[in-house]
Amino acid sequence: MRARDKAAVSALRATLATLENAEAVPLDESAPRAAALEASPVGAGATEAARRELSERETVDLVRAEAAERLEAAARLTAPAHADRAERLRAEAAVLLRFLDGAEGTARSA
Description:
Blueprint: H1 6-23, H2 56-76, H3 83-109
Helix pairs in contact: 1-2, 1-3, 2-3
């Protein structure tokens, strides 16, 4: 990664954002949206919501979906003018799949 592999950096950043979004807790629609100021939570972290924890399977599925999304987008880019973008998407997908292969191999041997 020190060589600044742009495809790897892009793929990993986007996938980390996807994982963080998946950990977000959905809003409770029945909860009141506004209240009196004096009823507001006070103190450090008082407004923080607990995040869900993704299982290993959910994480693998999300990363696999990110790779598949890139491969599908690359397949749709058939015009010669988009060849560079398609190749970059394929490279990003390869990074994610290589990461999964390494992670699954480690999990099997443990």
